[in-house]
From TrEMBL, chains A, B:
It comes from Actinocrispum wychmicini. It comes from the Bacteria. This is proton-translocating NAD(P)(+) transhydrogenase. Residues 10-135 form the Alanine dehydrogenase/pyridine nucleotide transhydrogenase N-terminal domain. Its EC number is 7.1.1.1. Keywords: NAD, NADP, Nucleotide-binding, Translocase. One of its GO terms (biological process) is NADPH regeneration. The transhydrogenation between NADH and NADP is coupled to respiration and ATP hydrolysis and functions as a proton pump across the membrane. InterPro entries: AlaDH/PNT_N (IPR007886), AlaDH/PNT_NAD(H)-bd (IPR007698), NAD(P)-bd_dom_sf (IPR036291). GO terms for cellular component: plasma membrane. CDD domains: Rubrum_tdh. It catalyses: NAD(+) + NADPH + H(+)(in) = NADH + NADP(+) + H(+)(out). It is an enzyme of class 7 (translocase).
Length: 358, 358
């Protein structure tokens, strides 16, 4: 039985509420099959992304129990029940989060997609970036959807309405994609970041650069946390700046910390009625003081939207990009159809957050 | 008391469920005041559009009972209760609908915004067009929001996703705005209409023209109803065409009739999973056989959205455009601060659907 010699990759159905993504899509299944891997998909795994079991089978996957496979690929971190189903020695890939003790106890090799180092050789595995692209795009659309006004300038027989002004705070992948999307839709865009070196990238997507005169260059491409004095000054100057905008999209997060408050309740009060704040930092506490994570609320006639897990809102392409990131990592972990974990490789070492005792 | 000599325009709070628009906005209140009209706004009238009473007062309106005014401007047709509050001889302006018997009994002058003739002198009063612009823009956004994929092409380190293909059926104001918006967002767009003379307009917004070889030129800029044979052939050819698109936006309506079915259940079945149908004809029965008016449903892994009263979803600008249309009509009905209904005027005669017996 030649089939049993291949390593099998299991694709469970995601169990987190609202999670419509799936770790592998049919298109990528075909590529993994070509690379000598079997793929076992849990029935319904692609259902949230509107991809049927049949599409997986057509791509060469079999339907079955993904947890019995040598490699299990997920999007979200596994629940305690799911960890219980993993065999010792399994390679588990996903956004594993910070609490990896249970994985360690289960004796699995855990590879965290969010721990992939930001080096050029690992770009194709950078799932934080690919999912941030989706989030930034959807954030700009959410702003348009909740705004009581048009994004583009509109000229009608009865007169003209001016274009919306969109400000994006934080010019990482999500922020740049939000700027690009809002601009595409016809808005006038402005970007802000504490890292002055991203000004050129902001301008490259057609946006103006908002210079508040406060810098905070950190490690690994992220911003460092500001000092208390810098923070107070930043918030004061931002409060003045945001008032002129129809839509403010905030994307400021510092890894492992509560998100900084950039838009205070006072500045919401001063915004023009009908304006919108889209807060992408809802999961880590929010960049807007009035955000209610997971909800859209109206405060002082301003709509404040703080979506959770935005990439799940565009599940096919979010899954496809994620699956390609996973595929790139798998190609590093598997050689000629066999697992070969080379912990001397910088990427393998960095991404591995728990390791089976050997 | 000079004030009492001015004619007063009353602006009620709209009572229809989900109606967030208002017939006059503060900006237009100022212009009417300058033209010698008083404006009386019901408290909370702008609330759905997030425009506070204070903004109206600042523009020169007073808060009070709008139903006592000589002129009452509305968006939606009045309810029986509201008609009861109108004094005989009142001029009522709004989308009055086809059932105007109660208005006639109440002895009011009813001017229906949807009855404004489509002549160039009346373009500034064309509320059907201005509201269709809003609907078309929002329809393209709704498609993007429900699609499981990106509209624009996206190039990432892990590969490229292709742009979405968007087909718009019906190239009136709503259809053209939907095409323009989807194209702005990066989609590849195609337009179809039974009126071959709009092909140039479709191309002018960057879309391809889908030629099915069936024509139906009607009166007043609308399409005529097709014969049964033409309809069957049209649906057969459309069924073949829609299969290749990620998003199909339908805008086909024939005034006073049930909307034609353009997208059958069979063609939904044949569409690629994750695709979207946005049906703008939900209010008149729908252009898609599987539409559920007012809802977004998933059938055969395709999302079918049939929104009701889409312009209410962008209430400030929808109201502002509508208010400018109303302002233009008021300027025709009022001369130097006095009502002067000149029924020999083509626009006045056409728009007047009920007239006080004199």
């Amino acid at each position: 039985m030649a089939e049993t010699q291949n390593i099998a990759v299991g694709v469970p159905r995601e169990s987190a509420p609202g999670e419509r993504r799936v770790a592998l899509v049919p298109k990528v299944v075909g590529r993994l099959r070509a690379a000598g891997l079997d793929v076992v998909v849990e029935p319904g795994a692609g259902g949230g992304a509107l991809m049927s079991d049949w599409l997986y089978e057509e791509a060469g996957a079999t339907l079955g129990d993904p947890w019995a496979c040598e490699i299990v690929v997920k999007v979200a971190a596994p629940t305690p029940d799911e960890i219980h189903r993993l065999k010792p020695g399994t390679v588990l890939i996903g956004f594993l989060g910070t609490d990896v003790e249970a994985l360690s106890t289960a004796d699995v090799h855990g590879f965290a997609m969010e721990a992939i180092p930001r080096i050029s050789r690992a770009q194709s595995m950078d799932a934080l970036s690919s999912q941030s692209s989706v989030a930034g795009y959807l954030a700009a659309l959410l702003g348009a959807q909740h705004l009581t006004r048009f994004y583009p300038m509109l000229t009608t027989a009865a007169g003209t309405v001016p274009p919306a002004k969109v400000l994006v705070l934080g010019a990482g992948v999500a922020g740049l994609q939000a700027l690009a999307t809002a601009r595409r839709l016809g808005a006038q865009t402005t970007g802000y970041d504490v890292r002055p070196e991203v000004a050129e990238q902001v301008r490259s997507v057609g946006a103006k650069w908002l210079d508040l005169g406060i810098e905070a260059i950190g490690e690994g491409g992220y911003a460092r946390a500001l000092t208390d004095e810098e923070r107070a000054e930043q918030v004061r100057r931002l409060n003045e700046a945001v008032i002129g905008y129809d839509v403010v999209i905030t994307t400021a997060q510092v890894p492992g910390r509560k998100a900084p408050v950039l838009v205070t309740g006072d500045s919401v009060t001063a915004m023009r009625a009908g304006s919108v704040v889209v807060d992408l930092a809802g999961e880590s506490g929010g960049n807007c003081e009035l955000s209610v994570p997971g909800e859209a609320v109206v405060r002082h006639d301003v709509t404040i939207v703080a979506p959770l897990n935005l990439p799940a809102g565009m599940p096919e392409h979010a899954s496809e990009l994620y699956a390609r990131n996973v595929q790139a990592l798998l190609e590093l972990l598997v050689d000629q159809g066999k697992l070969r974990l080379d912990f001397s490789d910088e990427i393998v070492a960095a991404a591995c957050v728990t390791r089976k005792e050997s």
